[in-house]
Amino acid sequence: MEKTKRIQRRLIFSGVTLAAVLLWAFCPVYRLEVSSISRAKASLSLPISSGDRFSIWFLHSYDRAFFQENYEIDHHHQIILRDMAFKSHLNGGGFAYSHFHLRPDGVGELKNINERRNPVEFMMGSKDLANHTLFWRTKEIELARFFQSGEIIQIRVVKKIRLRGI
After folding, report:
1. Per-residue pLDDT tens over the stretch 60-93
2. In three state form, how does the secondary structure of 46-96 look?
3. Fewer beta carbons within 10 angstroms: which end of the chain, N or C?
4. What region, left, alpha or beta, does residue 64 occupy, with left being phi > 0 and alpha being psi -120 to 50 degrees?
5. d(CA 20, CA 153)
6. Beta-bridge partner residues of 30
7. Total-model pTM
8. Half-sphere exposure of 86 (CA within 13 A, CB side)
9. pLDDT tens across 92-117, in order?
């Protein structure tokens, strides 16, 4: 009787372990992939979860003042443009947007944008003029290390399975 119970416990333990491994192996994970549309493979692939935030920072081509777009990954793993902050005067073309705010330090902010942007696309500027930078978690990633000026950059969320081809 004791031997039968031991065998049953081992079988239960083995079954639970196997179920956990299979769940881990086939449960999707989400990655923030940064790529050039002219290349087949993403140059950057970063793990993300819903609620994560990232920013794209660059110097505006007109007046070389900073511009920062702030994004969040929503619970559907979609990229949402949350808000923008900028010092640029944008050649005098102001925003007709109800949530515009000019801070005392002269930085303009557009709040509550909350627009889905999947993918985010932009033309890569040169390091000396635009210096496109991705702020992700605690890292500042200079995109000029991965991309050439003039490339069209795409940032998107990709769903992946840990184990493929089984």
Report:
1. 877 778 999 999 999 999 999 999 998 866 555 5
2. EEECCCCEEEEEEECCCCCCEEEEEEEECCCCCEEEEEEEECCCHHHCCCC
3. N
4. left
5. 38
6. 48, 159
7. 0.79
8. 24
9. 555 566 788 888 888 889 899 999 99
